[in-house]
Design brief:
The chain has 131 residues and is mainly β. The protein has one domain: Lipocalin. The chain has 2 helices and 9 strands. An 8-stranded antiparallel beta barrel has the order 1-3-4-5-6-7-8-9. This is Lipocalin-like domain-containing protein. It comes from Hymenobacter edaphi.
Length: 131
């Protein structure tokens, strides 16, 4: 699942939220790079890094609101739609039509860090590196 790649990447408390979210996300930074999923965290603890990340993929945002994910294991490609809502929420509709919202914790020329909470109050984070 893309968001088993996006819930671990469809991935979308008793946990405290990170208050370091950017005030206004520069969407050009999302578009400027292809983003490789490089690390996953659960409640602040690293669960996988680099090649140990299950269903690892590259995420490419396209101007106009579309995106495609390319899975590294088999080069399978899936497409969807995206937009930035509020100053720091990435809203994604995956290839199955399922909507997911991610808090943009960091975006710069090297790193994209997204987070979301599960129903059980667990805080998930996916960290991407610019290619």
């Amino acid at each position: 699942m893309v968001l088993g790649a996006l819930a671990s990447a469809a991935v979308f408390s008793a946990c405290q939220k990170d208050n370091s979210s950017p005030k206004n996300v520069d969407q050009q930074l999302l578009l400027a790079h292809e983003w490789r999923l490089s690390e996953t965290r659960l409640n602040g603890v690293v669960t996988a890094r680099d090649t140990a990340v299950k269903d690892r993929y590259d995420w490419h945002f396209v101007s106009g609101g579309s995106y495609h994910l390319t899975y590294l294991a088999d080069a399978a490609v899936v497409q969807g739609r995206w937009q930035v809502n509020n100053p720091n929420t990435l809203h994604v509709v995956d290839h199955k039509g399922d909507a997911h919202d991610y808090a943009i914790q960091q975006v710069d020329n090297a790193t994209l860090r997204l987070s979301w909470e599960e129903r059980a109050g667990e805080l998930h984070e996916d960290i991407y590196t610019a290619k």
